[in-house]
Design goal:
5-stranded antiparallel β-sheet, alpha+beta, FAD/NAD(P)-binding domain, 31% strand, 8-stranded mixed β-sheet, globular, Polyamine Oxidase, Chain A, domain 2, binds flavin-adenine dinucleotide, 17 strands, single chain, 2 domains, 327 residues
């Protein structure tokens, strides 16, 4: 049986904030775009999960705003009812950057961005190559997608693996810059409690020492209908234990979290984010790797370029779109 080849002008790999922001900007400029993502849900690292009646934000917890364009974007999301300010300072502490959250969960922002965009979920690009017409991406299900241009927004080590399947040769200076980018890992525990936690409002706790970096109370946040917390292992702890049995590691994190919870954990799940946040980023907002090569247009984008956070992912997506629009 011959499997189909789909055609699109621009293929974007990744329905996280970078990919969806790029798609929006490209569509607004009249381009024909298709977004594919290997995940079953939208949003990438803006992830949510349900366990019974409990709901969790288990990837990004909030976003901050620095760039004026992003400030404006977040205002629009607030107006659309998919974001709101979560908190701007902890009780008794001086004001810091306002923290904004998705409503009802962080993934609401991705769902909002995906309205009117062609997105294929559960669609993994396994390999790619250049042919006479541009890029040919081979999917896990055997079908393929041909596009004139390609935007890749996966974490950079995964992008490099993908490019190596097609023996895509990058200019040395760009390859060196990409090799320098690195990420920390995060083991995230989603735990259901037998009663509300004793965490003070706003139900968010960032810790500097020890195995835990962050605890948030999804019940206080209004994410979960029943008491439930997200516990993020610190970068050091998560790296050290990433290959260990995740249930055992989760139990260690739950033990360490006990003094902050004042409640018992009745059920939990664990997720390992191998590439959680970039710790070494590139200093350009996106990378046109095909520049001065024979390759068809190829742009890399994501939070490893315009800043290691939600805001950076969005800015990078927009930057990638602008480069493509002006090619
Ligand atoms: C635990 C955790 C906590 C965080 N906390 C915060 C926070 O509080 N505030 C903040 O600002 N940021 C936070 N971040 C970082 C923030 O989530 C990211 O910066 C941002 O979401 C990155 O978006 P992106 O679009 O660049 O990448 P991603 O969201 O990773 O999107 C890339 C997408 O590509 C898809 N993909 C990869 N390979 C393929 C393939 N071969 N085929 C098809 N699809 C593919 C993936 O499934 C993914 O959906 C956190 C991240 C984590 C993991």
């Amino acid at each position: 049986m011959t499997l189909p080849i789909h055609h699109t002008d621009i293929l974007i790999i990744g329905a996280g904030l970078a990919g969806l922001s790029a798609a929006n900007a490209l569509q607004a400029a009249g381009h024909n775009v298709l977004v594919v993502d290997k995940g079953r849900g939208l949003g990438g690292r803006l992830a949510g999960r349900r366990i019974g009646n409990a709901s969790f934000d288990h990837g990004a917890q909030f976003m901050t705003t620095r760039n004026p364009k992003f400030v404006e974007q977040v205002s629009q999301w607030i107006e659309a009812g998919v974001a709101e300010e979560w908190y701007s300072s902890f009780p008794g502490q001086a004001n810091s950057h306002a923290r904004y959250r998705g409503v009802p969960t962080m993934t609401a922002i991705a769902k909002h961005l995906a309205v009117g965009v062609s997105v294929k979920l559960a669609t993994k690009v396994e390999s790619l190559k250049v042919d006479n017409h541009g890029w040919l991406c081979q999917l896990e299900n055997g079908a393929s997608i041909r596009s004139r241009s390609l935007v890749i927004t996966s974490p950079v080590p995964q992008t490099l693996d993908l490019l190596s399947t097609g023996k895509v040769k990058l200019p040395k200076d760009k390859q060196d810059r990409l090799n320098r980018i690195s990420y920390e890992s995060c083991i995230a525990v989603m735990a259901i409690l037998d009663q509300p936690s004793v965490m003070k409002s706003p139900g968010a706790l960032a810790l500097d020492d020890g195995p835990i970096a962050w605890i948030s109370d999804n019940y206080q946040k209004g994410v979960s209908a029943i008491p439930a917390v997200t516990i993020h292992g610190s970068g050091d702890f998560s790296a050290k234990h990433f290959k260990d049995d995740h249930d055992q590691v989760a139990r260690q994190l739950i033990d360490a979290a006990k003094p902050y919870l004042g409640a018992n954990v009745v059920d939990f799940q664990v997720h390992g984010w191998r590439y959680s946040k970039p710790i070494i980023v590139d200093d350009s907002p996106c990378m046109l790797v095909s520049q001065n090569t024979d390759l068809p247009p190829l742009i890399l984008a994501g939070d490893a370029f315009a800043g290691p956070r939600v805001e950076g992912a969005v800015l990078s997506g927009w930057a990638a779109a602008e480069v493509l629009i002006n090619l």
